[in-house]
Amino acid sequence: MEKQYLEKSEAGSRRAEGKIWIREVGSWKLEVSYWRGMASRVHLLSWMLLVVLSILQFPTSIIQAQTLDDHLLTATENNPEIQAYFSDYLAALERIPQAGTLPDPELSLGLFVRPMERFMGNQHADLQLMQMFPWFGSLGIRKDEASKMARARYEAFRMVKNELLFQVKVAWYELSRLNEEIKISKAHLNILEKYERLALVRYQSSNREMNRSNASSNQGMEDVLRIRMEMNELENTISLLEDTQEALVAEFNALLNRNPEETLAIPDKLPDEPLPMNRLELLDSIKTFNPRLRMLDAEGAAYASQKKMAELEGRPMMGAGVNYMAFSPRTENGMNMGGNNMVMPMFKITLPIYRKKFKSMEKAAALNQQASLQRMENTVNQLSTQWRNALRDWDDANRRVDLYQKQTKLAQQTLDLLMTAYASDGKAFEDLLKVQQQLLDYQLKRIMAIVDKNNSLAQLENLAGI
Q1: Which parts pass through the membrane (predicted)?
Q2: Number of separate domains in the chain
Q3: What is the pLDDT along the chain (466 residues), one digit of tens a residue?
C-alpha cells in the first residue's frame, strides 16, 4: 500500500515543503521523507528496502507453487489409509522371523518332599531339559510362506497407493478444468459487456435520429436487454463454478489429509501429454507390474508353500534333551550306598498317526492355490478390457481436442465477421449472440476433452502401476 501526500510547515515556508512516502508490507511500515534535492536517491533506497521486506514477509512455500508431483508425494506420505496398509506390510514382515524360530525348549523340575530311596541312593530332585525339532526343511518352508504373504501385503499397499494417486490426479485435473472454465467464462462476460456498450451506443444514436424527426421508438433496446439476459446467466454459471471449485479444494485436501481450508496454487493451463509408451508395451507393463496381479501371484506362491508345509507337518518331530537326577548316599547296614548324581541323555519323537488332519490341510492349501490362479486369470481379462476402454477413451478425447480447437478457430473468425457487420449496420445480432455462445461452448468442450484425455492417461498409469 502506498500513500503520497504533501506536508507544509506551520510557518508556510516553501523551503520546509517536502514529500513523505509511506509504504506498508504486511505488518511492516516504511516511512521516508526527503527534500527535493535528495528525492531520487532516497526513493531508490526505499524501493530496495521494500523488496527486502517483501521477501522476509512472505515464506517461500507461498512463493513457489506446488506441482501435481508435489501433491502426489504429500498424499503418499500423509494419507491415513496408505499408512494403515503400510503398517500391515510391516506387521507381515515381523512374522517372518517368528516362522523360522524353533519351538521353545521345555524345562521340568521335580523335587521330592521326602527323598525317594533307590538302589543308587536317595533321590532328591529330577531335572529334565528337552528341545523339539521339526522335520528337516520345515522352518525354511514356514519362512518362505511368511515372506510371500508379506510380499502380498506389500502389493496390496501398492494397489491402494496407486488408487489414491489416481484419485488425486482426477481431482487435480477437475480443479484445473474449473479454473479454466472460470477464466473463459469471465472473458466471455467481458466480451458481452462490450457488446452491451455497443448496443447502447446504437440505441442512443437511433433515439437521437428519431427525436430529430419528432418520432419515438425503442428500436435497438431489445438487443441491450438480450445481452443483459445472457450476462445474468453467465454470471450465475461463474458463481456455480466458483462454489464447486471451493468444495473440490476441500475434497482434494482431504485426500492429502490436510486442512480443508488450505489454499491451492492451481496451474493456469491444463497439461496435454501423450501416451508414455507403445500401446502393446503398455499392456505388457500392466500384465507384469499391476499390483493386483502381483498380489494374487504372491498369494498363490504362499499357498503352494502352505501345501508343502502341511506335508512336512505330517512328518514326525524329534526332540533331544538331558535328564539330571540328584542323589544323596543311602545308609544300609551301617554303610553308605551310592549317592552319585546321574545324567541321562534323552531322545523324543512324535508319532503323527492321525493323518486326516494333515490331508485336510494339504487339500485346503491346494484349493486356495487354485482359487488364486483362477482369480489371476479373471483379473488379467478385466485388466485387458480396462486397457482397451481407457485407450478408446483416450483416442476419443484426443479427437475431440483437435475438433474443438478447429471449431473454436472457425467460430472466432465467424464472430469477427458478424461483429463487423453489426457495428456497421446493426444487422445479424441474432447470429452474433448465437455464434458467441457456440464459441464459449467449443472452448469449454475442448477443456473437458483435455481433462478426459488426462483422466484416461491416469487410468492407464494406475493399471500399469506407474
Answers
A1: 44-63
A2: 3
A3: 333 333 333 333 333 334 333 333 333 333 333 334 444 444 444 444 444 444 344 333 333 457 888 899 999 988 999 999 999 999 999 999 998 889 889 999 988 888 887 877 788 899 999 999 999 988 999 999 999 999 999 999 999 999 999 999 999 999 999 999 999 999 999 988 888 888 888 777 766 665 555 544 455 678 888 889 989 999 999 999 999 999 999 999 999 988 888 888 888 788 888 888 888 988 999 999 999 999 999 999 999 999 999 888 889 999 999 999 888 887 777 667 777 888 999 999 988 888 888 899 999 999 999 999 999 999 999 999 999 999 999 999 999 999 999 999 999 999 888 888 877 776 778 888 899 999 999 999 999 999 999 999 999 999 988 7
Identify the domain boundary among 351, 369, 396: 351
- Domain identity same for 163 and 280: yes
The CA-CA-CA angle for residues 327, 332, 333, to 5°, reads 160
Q: Give yes or no for a contact between 173 and 197, defined as CB atoms under 8 angstroms apart.
A: no
Which structural domain, as residue segments, surrounds residue 288?
68-101+144-187+201-223+236-314+354-464
The amino acid occupying position 324 is Y
Residues 338 and 405 in one domain: no
Under DSSP, the state recorded for 14 is: G
Q: List Cα–Cα distances, 31 to 35, 55, 58, 166, in angstroms.
A: 14, 18, 20, 52
**Does the reported pTM lie above 0.85?**
no
**Looking at the structure, do residues 86 and 127 belong to the same domain, yes or no?**
no
